[in-house]
Amino acid sequence: MASIIRSVATVKREYRSTIRRGDAPQLVIAAATRLFATKGYLATSIEDIAAEAGVARPTVFSAVGPKPVILRAVVDQAIAGDDAAVPVAERAWWREAVDEPDAATAIRRLARTMTGIGQGIAPIARALETAATMDADSAEVWARYQTQRRTGLREFVEALGAKHATRWDVDTLTDTLWMLQPSAYLRLVIDGGWSPERYEVWLADVLTRVFLE
Description:
This protein is an all-alpha fold. It contains 10 helices and no strands. The radius of gyration is 18 Å and the shape is elongated.
């Protein structure tokens, strides 16, 4: 789980004419993540990304691709925490929450997972949602992100209901989780100054009270 908790704030790199083989994709994605979070997707150019990453402009295209492809990669890595070709649904930290036999423990593990994902996705979620209202590529990425979230959250809710009586039906509980994340993380941690640890404890308590009979 520690792999999905990472900061997007690093020192801006100076341009280098040569980089180690294989480094360029991560340099580009890390740079784009910082810029999308602070400057916004629409206001960020390929030139900006290249300068921030410390690579030549053509390298951005050859290493990752045009801006829409970069955006998809940024969102995917923000959620998963790395570039491994392993779906979130198959990640150990997600399976631990879904497959945990004790309902209360499963909720605490979900809260930990949602907090970790929040740390990755929250800095760019706001920028992505704003861009989605004005840009077709951003709208496609935003819609895909929403669909993926609902699918994953529903899996957890269905698994929870199979092991313990819940206060609400599957659709309502899925929508509750979907509503909370990443909005609550944005409001409480990013805007409100809560620590991620405080947020995790609060979220586990809220979900336990709302979900379980």
